[in-house]
Specification:
about 60% helix, elongated, mainly alpha, about 0% strand
Length: about 140
């Protein structure tokens, strides 16, 4: 009898808890993830959001660029391009001319000498006269003991 009472009481409690328990629907937060997501699911979700935002930003930039190109007059763009190319060529030509002049002057100074320092010394002697160094008198070939 005691076993039957325990069995009846246990079954009643089990059925009562199952009957009154509400099944919670799978709730998802407003961000699209369940209450307790795994790390992999969170990373995947965040990566997807980042890619979506990046794609939207690229699309907006492309639309803005397309709109600005359509608004410009083609003749103005060609004229601006030609003007900037001509200015660039003129600047580079001036730089090359200045560089060439500097190198020419440096080469000339290396060979001839600078006007500030005078010209390179040129000695003229007859071919039959031997050249004697200025300090030959100080040099002796014999040992001094």
């Amino acid at each position: 009898m005691m076993k039957q009472a325990i069995l009846l009481l246990g079954t009643t409690l089990l059925l009562a808890s199952a009957t009154f328990a509400e099944e919670a629907p799978a709730t998802q937060a407003s961000n699209g993830l369940p209450d307790n997501p795994s790390l992999w699911r969170v990373l995947t979700y965040k990566s997807g959001q980042t890619l979506s935002k990046t794609g939207d930003a690229i699309q907006r930039g492309a639309e803005n660029t397309s709109q600005s190109i359509q608004n410009q007059n083609i003749g103005e763009r060609v004229e601006q391009g030609a003007t900037s190319t001509a200015q660039f060529a003129k600047e580079k030509t001036q730089q090359a001319t200045t560089y060439g002049k500097e190198k020419w002057q440096q080469g000339k100074e290396a060979i001839i000498g600078t006007p500030n320092n005078g010209t390179a010394p040129i000695e003229s002697r007859p071919l039959t006269t031997p050249i004697q160094p200025a300090n030959q008198g100080n040099i002796s070939n014999s040992p001094e003991n």
